[in-house]
Amino acid sequence: MSFVRVEHRFQGPERSGNGGYVAGLLGTALAPELDSALVPKVTLRMPPPLEKELALAAGDTGAKLTDGDAVVAEAIPVDADFLTDATIDPVLPDEARAAEASYRGLNDHPFPTCFVCGPANQSGLQLKPGPIGDGRTACTWTPAADLATNGLVDELFLWAALDCPGGWTIDLEGRPSVLGQLTACIDARPQAGEECVALGRYLGEDGRKTFTASTLYDADGRVLARAKHTWITVDPAAFN
User: Which superkingdom, per the lineage (predicted)?
Assistant: First the structure.
């Protein structure tokens, strides 16, 4: 068992941690325990608290993040085939950059402090996933040096970057949602300062749940990471 703290920098809604970042804490703890036929699926059980010591335990059967007796999130291994259709066809960086001009979160963001895509979080990733048609989003991402170890971006931040490109395929202004579940596979790590492309795709919805996918590509068009998400509609006021 180890202890982790979700700093304010890594928030999603103003009073809780970013879902992708927190999922990455569990996913990166569980992944080394798994063989190549399995990937981590993380389920968030409550809004992750900020600036508290949280216990993180991981083994080959799963991982759990707890706040005292309360379960914040859990991860289990699932068959890697679950992500077979998660890879979104790439677009050129120029097209991704052009899409950023239509990023809806710049003007009406339900959670403007979000570490991944919040315009108010100046120390965040500053992703701006804009629509490119057919239920897809695209944007560029140039990881900062403080996200890397020995020049390569830490897997934790790849989990985070996989989060919001999927979320913005939803009408987040009319259907505010938070991440409920994230299943991801990290295939490779980019260099800090390397321009990457992030894509999201809408897959469907069922009641309060919306299903999406996302893919990260490096500057050479190589797949870095893939994910599927489940989002849950919420009242943003509940997080303020």
Answer: Bacteria
**Three-state secondary-structure class, residue 71:** strand
Q: How many CB atoms lie within 10 A of CB 195?
A: 15
DSSP string, 119-176: TT-TTS-----EEEETTEEEEEE---GGGEETTEEPHHHHHHHTHHHHHTTS-TTTS-
The 3-class SS string of 40-66 reads: EEEEECCCCCCCCCEEEEEECCEEEEE
Please count the structural domains in the chain: 1
Q: Within a 10 A sphere around the Cβ of 94, how many other Cβ atoms?
A: 9
Domain span including residue 228: 2-239
CATH number of 219's domain: 2.40.160.210
CA proximity to 139, closest of 168, 159, 172: 168
User: Residue 233: beta bridge partners?
Assistant: 177
Alpha-carbon distance values, 108 to 112, 115, 161, 173, 232 (Å): 8, 16, 20, 7, 19
Give 240's pLDDT tier (boundaries 50, 70, 90). low
Write the pLDDT tens digit of every residue in 213-228.
999 999 999 999 999 9
Two tokens at 53? 């010591």
Secondary structure tally for the chain: helices H, strands E: 4, 13
Write down the residue that tokens 């059967």 correspond to: 61
Q: How far is CA 135 from the centre of its chain?
A: 18
